């Protein structure tokens, strides 16, 4: 999972060497000069810096296992996925970024956002819960190390599943939020197996309260990801041999929905918490466009990273060696919301979604932990 988004990072970013990746991140973040996208890969403008392996399907020579499917989701499916991401999925058993600090009404937040409720609906937990100590696995305040978290192992996950691993204590300073403020403060919703941000590991002690079993990925999300993996002409990629195995056993079981406001960025990181280091990660872009930046497996690498313009409906698949590549989102593109996601009359439910999207991008980021059904059963029963 990524490091925290920049707006959450209260302490300053530690001094970093001036790597090609950092330089490129800074370039796309700059708001004091007009944005220059001439070096970014944009399939609508020029496809010469990528390898076209199918209709709307590209690979990149420097990133073995990276597959880009522009405009994979049609307008109807984008809207369906947006409704799921905002209205349906941010509710139990899926945890979200506000849950640790706020009590959220059982009907969720969307309903209040859509109805423009002016009363406070997310109330600070600290007001009603006894104070708790900060668990040692959270970095002391004032420090934000550049974490190179270790790849996960089954044994480590077993140990975590046996323990009760408290979340960060509720903040004593947060203020109550109405529906609108709460939705704009929402940074992520967890889907599938629970990812513990303090431990930077999946925590199987957190189960679906209804089934007491593992938390499942919402079915429509799993289906879209499966469809994308099956749509790729893997035999034309340089990971063709390994892909034969992935295709057979592809079963996404974990992930995160990221919500970005126009000024948000996501710092370059590697998603290392999955036991597997090569199974496909499927990433769906919705709403405003963004610059996605991908390098290789070293933060200090001297080779220049590849910037790609991602639009609503685009899918990026990271697999094979690229699964361990640094990547991030240094820029959301202003004024890039496509007309079909703006307010329209045919769908009378759409108005609040258009309102939300007018300043937002959503990313549905879906992984496979690489654990067998038997291993998962063992983890949820310890
Ligand atoms: O927003 C994106 O396109 C990428 C998100 C990401 O890298 C992550 O969630 O790990
Ligand atoms: Fe990531």
From TrEMBL:
<dbReference type="GO" id="GO:0046872">
    <property type="term" value="F:metal ion binding"/>
</dbReference>
<keyword id="KW-0479">Metal-binding</keyword>
<dbReference type="GO" id="GO:0051213">
    <property type="term" value="F:dioxygenase activity"/>
</dbReference>
<feature type="binding site">
    <location>
        <position position="327"/>
    </location>
    <ligand>
        <name>Fe cation</name>
    </ligand>
</feature>
<feature type="region of interest" description="Disordered">
    <location>
        <begin position="1"/>
        <end position="20"/>
    </location>
</feature>
<dbReference type="InterPro" id="IPR037151">
    <property type="entry name" value="AlkB-like_sf"/>
</dbReference>
<dbReference type="InterPro" id="IPR005123">
    <property type="entry name" value="Oxoglu/Fe-dep_dioxygenase_dom"/>
</dbReference>
<keyword id="KW-0223">Dioxygenase</keyword>
<dbReference type="GO" id="GO:0005737">
    <property type="term" value="C:cytoplasm"/>
</dbReference>
<feature type="domain" description="Fe2OG dioxygenase">
    <location>
        <begin position="251"/>
        <end position="370"/>
    </location>
</feature>
<feature type="binding site">
    <location>
        <position position="269"/>
    </location>
    <ligand>
        <name>Fe cation</name>
    </ligand>
</feature>
<dbReference type="InterPro" id="IPR004574">
    <property type="entry name" value="Alkb"/>
</dbReference>
<protein>
    <submittedName>
        <fullName>Alpha-ketoglutarate-dependent dioxygenase alkB</fullName>
    </submittedName>
</protein>
<keyword id="KW-0408">Iron</keyword>
<dbReference type="Pfam" id="PF13532">
    <property type="entry name" value="2OG-FeII_Oxy_2"/>
</dbReference>
<feature type="binding site">
    <location>
        <position position="271"/>
    </location>
    <ligand>
        <name>Fe cation</name>
    </ligand>
</feature>
<keyword id="KW-0560">Oxidoreductase</keyword>
<dbReference type="GO" id="GO:0005634">
    <property type="term" value="C:nucleus"/>
</dbReference>
<dbReference type="InterPro" id="IPR027450">
    <property type="entry name" value="AlkB-like"/>
</dbReference>
């Amino acid at each position: 999972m990524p490091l925290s988004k920049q707006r959450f990072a209260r302490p300053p970013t530690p001094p970093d060497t001036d790597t090609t990746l950092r330089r490129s991140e800074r370039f796309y973040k700059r708001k004091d000069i007009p944005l220059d996208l001439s070096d970014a890969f944009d399939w609508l403008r020029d496809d010469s810096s990528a390898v076209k392996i199918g209709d709307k399907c590209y690979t990149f020579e420097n990133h073995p296992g990276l597959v880009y499917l522009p405009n994979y989701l049609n307008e109807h499916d984008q809207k369906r996925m947006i409704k799921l991401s905002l209205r349906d999925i941010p509710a139990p058993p899926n945890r979200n970024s506000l849950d640790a600090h706020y009590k959220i009404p059982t009907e969720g937040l969307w309903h209040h956002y859509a109805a423009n409720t002016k009363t406070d609906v997310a109330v600070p937990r600290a007001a009603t819960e006894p104070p708790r100590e900060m668990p040692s696995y959270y970095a002391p305040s004032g420090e934000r190390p550049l974490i190179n978290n270790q790849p996960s192992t089954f044994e480590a996950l077993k140990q975590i599943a046996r323990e009760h691993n408290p979340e960060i204590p509720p903040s004593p300073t947060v203020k109550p939020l109405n529906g609108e403020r709460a939705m704009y403060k929402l940074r992520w919703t967890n889907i599938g197996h629970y990812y513990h941000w303090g431990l930077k590991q999946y925590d199987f002690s957190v189960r679906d309260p209804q089934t007491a079993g593992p938390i499942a990925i919402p079915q429509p999300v799993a289906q879209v990801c499966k469809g994308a993996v099956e749509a790729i002409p893997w035999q034309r990629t340089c990971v063709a041999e390994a892909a034969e195995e992935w295709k057979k056993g592809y079963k996404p079981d974990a992930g995160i929905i990221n919500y970005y406001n126009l000024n948000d960025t996501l710092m370059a990181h590697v998603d290392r918490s999955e036991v597997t280091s090569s199974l496909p990660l499927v990433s769906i872009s919705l709403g405003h466009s963004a610059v996605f930046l991908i390098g290789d497996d070293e933060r200090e690498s001297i080779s220049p990273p590849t910037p790609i313009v991602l639009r609503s409906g685009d899918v990026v698949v990271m697999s094979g060696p690229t699964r361990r590549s640094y990547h991030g989102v240094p820029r959301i593109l202003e004024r890039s919301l496509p007309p079909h996601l703006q307010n329209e009359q045919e769908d009378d439910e759409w108005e609040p979604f258009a309102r939300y999207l007018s300043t937002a991008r959503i990313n549905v980021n879906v992984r496979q932990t690489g654990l067998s059904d038997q291993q998962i059963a063992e983890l949820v029963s310890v």
